Amino acid sequence: LIIYPNPTDSEININKKVDVRMFNILGDMIILENNINVLDVSYLIPGMYNIQITYNNKIINRKIIKEWREY
Fold it and tell me: In angstroms, what CA-CA distances link 18 with 14, 25, 43, 46, 49?
């Protein structure tokens, strides 16, 4: 799977349709989405997040950095 961009300020793209769980640094699940390939993270505060992707009955864990967005 390709997960990009990282770091990001608005959205995360995934090259396949997947199920996504995102956790904050404390381990609280903050996002749960199914069958997506674009995840909007623009409303999250800047920081590091853990993303858990389920695809083909496999679980892939990655760290995502949410950057500050300049307007």
Answer: 8, 22, 21, 24, 18
